[in-house]
Design brief:
Length: 424
């Protein structure tokens, strides 16, 4: 095959070259039948047998290996489908986690969050209460024999209980840099609590809306907060001045209430999901909608969104009981996680989340109250894990840096799960 002058920006031409290399390699390896089928599918020119693709692959892999050694410190953790991780490097599978602590509210528990350093969790309930719990104390309660000598008196895991809402607490999130907890409620408010103060009972800052608030997301700097309500227009507030910003182009907004919102780790983008079934991706600076994935879950309402650490992909779940991994540069689902939901449609909203290394995707099965989990890269479904709840699991969130997750259920309880090092 004659040498080609590659233009990295001309993807169409480069794909043609790739297909011809593939056809030549198949012919060289004696797989003429597959070579002919591929040639007809891509309408390629006549190709001669050649093993140039093999040599290009070897040279390319060697270059990547050398580059990885040089720039290993610059590689972001988490899932990247361009690279294959070592099997020994995978985190523990979710079915090996065990319940380490259970806390109860007076009504259904439907919101939860981990602090950014993984040291605290918060739970919120329909009874309008919020509990903040210390992770180290929960682990000490569940395994007293593991406590270091001299640290036996850890105290109660619940370190704060907040009563400042008048309706269901619908969403919780910790500030990324300060000891502040943000709570969204169906009473039409978002409240910020200074949890560094032991005596805190009331919020020190309140954002008031005329609609029930469903979700929120802090900008990675903590200076802004995006808020989704039963109204179709997303709000972005300046945390310091409480000034509100909305998109200046009405046609870019959703057609129904905003069910979920998430900032990417770099804050270059944020994404929203809605009852209208669409996923929208917004520019983090201008606030303009730059992409809409229409009917992302076949028209079913979007339940949750989560960016990967490298910002390349977006994980979504919907009321159709399916979970997708979207490649943002092409707006296509490159992995589908199936097998959850016996009826194919959920009655209640819940979340799909990554574990702390993004090796696995976790999703509560509403019908069986079990935890479905998959290998995030190949979509292989893993062992089911009973979550021990007596009602639907309405919220799940995973620790950002440890093998731990929190489940919140309509049975009034929140369960803290942890994978101890001696578990097999």
């Amino acid at each position: 095959m004659r040498d080609e002058i590659l233009d990295p920006s001309n993807l169409v031409k480069n794909r043609e070259i790739l297909y011809r290399l593939m056809i030549s390699q198949l012919m060289y390896d004696g797989l003429e039948k597959f070579a002919m089928e591929l040639s007809m599918l891509v309408k390629a020119d006549q190709c001669a047998p050649s093993e140039r693709l093999l040599h290009v692959m070897i040279a390319g892999m060697q270059t990547l290996s050398d580059k990885d050694k040089t720039h290993s410190d610059d590689v972001l953790p988490g899932i990247d489908l361009e690279f294959e991780p070592e099997a020994s490097a995978l985190a523990p599978e979710p079915h090996s986690y065990e319940t380490a602590y259970v806390t109860s509210h007076k009504q259904a528990c439907r919101a939860g969050a981990f602090s950014y350093d993984g040291s605290l969790v918060a739970t919120g309930s329909v009874d309008a209460s919020i509990k903040i719990l210390d992770v180290e104390r929960m682990l000490a309660k569940s395994a007293p024999e593991d406590i270091e000598p001299g640290r036996e008196q850890q105290g109660h895991p619940v370190i704060r209980t907040l009563y400042d809402h008048t309706d269901e607490v619908s969403y919780l999130e910790f500030h990324p840099k300060e000891h502040i907890l943000a709570s969204a409620s169906r009473d039409g408010t978002v409240k910020l609590f200074d949890i560094a103060k032991p005596s805190v009972k009331k919020a020190h800052k309140v954002f008031t809306d005329c609609e029930p608030v469903l979700c929120l997301s802090f900008h990675p700097t903590g200076d802004y907060i995006a808020i989704g309500t039963e109204h179709n227009v997303l709000r972005v507030y300046d945390v310091h001045t409480t000034q509100c910003f909305v998109s200046a182009i009405p046609s870019q907004q959703h057609k129904a209430g905003v069910t979920c919102v998430k900032y990417s780790p770099t804050a270059k983008l944020y994404a929203t999901g809605s009852y209208d079934g669409d996923i929208k991706v917004w520019d983090g600076i201008s606030g303009r909608c730059i992409n809409t994935i229409a009917e992302a879950h076949g028209g079913a309402a979007i339940c949750s969104l989560e960016f990967t650490c490298n910002g390349k992909y977006l994980l979504s779940s919907g009321m159709d009981s399916l979970v997708y991994l979207w490649e943002l540069c092409t707006s296509r689902p490159i992995q589908t996680y199936t097998g959850a939901g016996t009826t194919g449609k959920q009655e209640h909203q819940t979340e799909a989340v990554f574990n702390h290394t993004e090796d696995y995707v976790l999703f509560p099965d509403e019908a069986t109250t079990s935890l479905c989990s998959w290998n995030s890269r190949n979509g292989c479904r893993l062992t089911l894990n009973s979550l021990g709840h007596n009602g639907p699991v309405r919220y799940i969130t995973h620790s950002p840096n440890a093998p731990a997750f929190l489940t919140c259920s309509d049975d009034f309880r929140a369960r803290f799960w942890y994978r101890r090092a001696n578990n097999q």
